[in-house]
Amino acid sequence: MKKAQFLTPVVTAFTAEGKLDHQANKNIYDFLINGGVDGLVIMGSTGEFFAMNDAEKKELIDLVVNHVNHRTKVYIGTSCMTVEDTIQLSNYAIDAGADGVMIISPYYFSLSDESVEDYYDQVADWVNGDIYLYNFPARTGHDLSPQVTLNLLRKHKNIKGYKDTVTEMTHTRELIQTVRNEFPEFIVYSGFDENFAHNILCGGNGCIGGLSNLYPAVFSEWVKAINLRDLEKVAEIQKIVDKMMGLYDIGTPFIPIMKQAMVLQGIELEGYSQKPLIQPNDKQIESIKLLLQELDALIVQVIPNYNGVLV
Description:
By secondary structure, the protein is an alpha/beta fold. It is built from twelve helices and eight strands. An eight-stranded parallel barrel has the order 1-2-3-4-5-6-7-8, surrounded by five helices. It is globular. The relative contact order is 0.14.
């Protein structure tokens, strides 16, 4: 079994005026690093990349790379709607010192397999660093299939991994089985937190899950349990995470819900999101508080010394 990893698709902190909140973002990075996550993914879906202009994206890239300063891995979501913009932003991130870039295919139109493969062919030819493919068919309207992925790997040595944000582990398992024999070092992450252990048992590498913004040390403990083959502990933490998944149901999209939960847990950020995302209402805030209370009670039963940092 491969060594497991859990990475955080980091929320982006903004001011009330919609500007990047530099200090709050630094606070979040430090909290996650101290919590022991295996890497940070900046400007993924949870990071609201879709609501930032090019200058803001470059500002955030410089901020995270300089502040993290190699304390953990940093990957940047550089997806844009055109090949040219994606290449330009990707190379900016690589030149700034990011460990790699994560790229989702253009969204809105449902693309054919041939179109998806052609898009990644062009991008991979011109990006001067490691690329991680990002599959999120619920948002793009199309799937990055296992066969297309295999075709791409045969042509591009800089494609190193894949994030599969699907609820069905069948798709992720098929991906692993399709590419693993020919490309044993190819990294496959699940995109939903609850699928972490299943991913590892299927031969994958772990997860890039948004709930680790809130409880990074819980997910670090889960990684530790998997790597130590402590299946009883793995199952105990699975129950915590299954309960934690309820955060996704409190509001749509869940990003403002996550930020509000982080504020309630004492993480130093204001909790603002970019329009059209709206702040949680009073009923939602009460639901968040109740769930956090239940989670905190569960966590201390399983991780007695838990204090929000790596234990």
